[in-house]
Design a protein that fits this description.
Helix 2 (about 35-50) links the parallel strand 1 (about 25-30) and strand 2. The chain has two domains: about 10-80; about 95-210, Nucleotidyltransferase, domain 5 (2-Layer Sandwich), CATH 3.30.420.10. Helices cover about 45% and strands about 20% of the residues. It has eight helices and six strands. The protein is globular, with a radius of gyration of 22 Å. The relative contact order is 0.10. The strands form two sheets. A four-stranded mixed beta sheet has the order 5-4-3-6, covered by helices on one side. This is Piwi domain-containing protein.
Length: about 210
């Protein structure tokens, strides 16, 4: 079976109608050899802010014709995550650990991804690529539900996060909205710190932003 060409205008029209109707989740089943729909849907997902999920025809068919329970469970688990649910949580029998990672604790993980070398000819056309700062924090209602994001900053050989203030403010404010108060404890995981001096520098800068709150 060959996949028909994707009518981008028609797909976007469906997104527009769903947006008007207040629909927040769209589910697609597509041909196994399709190479276009996924890219189009994910672009429109960001444009119209509607969560989407795509499933291959073979997987959908196996559920109906072969009763593949595990395939169905995998799809449902993915849907649950996309809609803000939690599939698993840690059981912490030790009272001390459970208290440390309780409802008043905010965990923030930060990692930097520096751009690679760019051909000089290409650099004159597109300029320098930014450093990407990825982060995740458990600032939703459930302590084991993490939300991720990223920021862009000017590339540098140093491991400093110049957008740290923006990240801290976003995570603290979302924590307060979802939990009703600011966190009492903070666990920071900072990836990519090589050497004691860099670690101390990063720690001092982070404490400075915490003092702001």
């Amino acid at each position: 079976m060959s996949a028909l060409p994707i009518d981008v205008a028609k797909v976007e029209e469906e997104f527009k109608e769903c947006k008007k109707a207040g629909i927040t989740f769209m589910f697609f089943i597509h041909a196994d050899n399709d190479q276009s729909l996924h890219k189009v849907v994910k672009l429109l997902e960001r444009q119209y802010e509607i969560v989407t999920q795509l499933v291959k025809m073979q997987n959908a068919g196996d559920i109906v014709s072969k009763g593949k329970q595990q395939t169905m469970e995998n799809i449902i688990h993915k849907t649950n995550i996309k809609l803000g649910g939690v599939n698993y949580e840690l059981r912490l029998p030790e009272a001390g650990i459970a208290e440390t990672l309780g409802n008043d604790t905010l965990c923030i993980g930060i990692s930097l991804n520096h751009p690679g070398a760019i051909n000089p000819t290409l650099r004159s056309t597109i300029g320098s690529a930014p450093t990407i700062v990825g982060y995740a924090a458990n600032d939703k209602k459930h302590p084991f539900e993490f939300v991720g994001g990223f920021r862009l900053q000017k590339p540098s050989k140093e491991e400093r996060v110049t957008v740290l203030g923006e990240i801290v403010q976003e995570c603290f404010e979302r924590f307060k909205v979802n939990r009703g108060n600011f966190p009492r404890k903070l666990i920071l995981f900072r990836n990519g710190c090589s050497g004691t001096f860099i670690f101390i520098d990063v720690l001092c800068r982070f404490i400075f932003f915490l003092y702001y709150f």
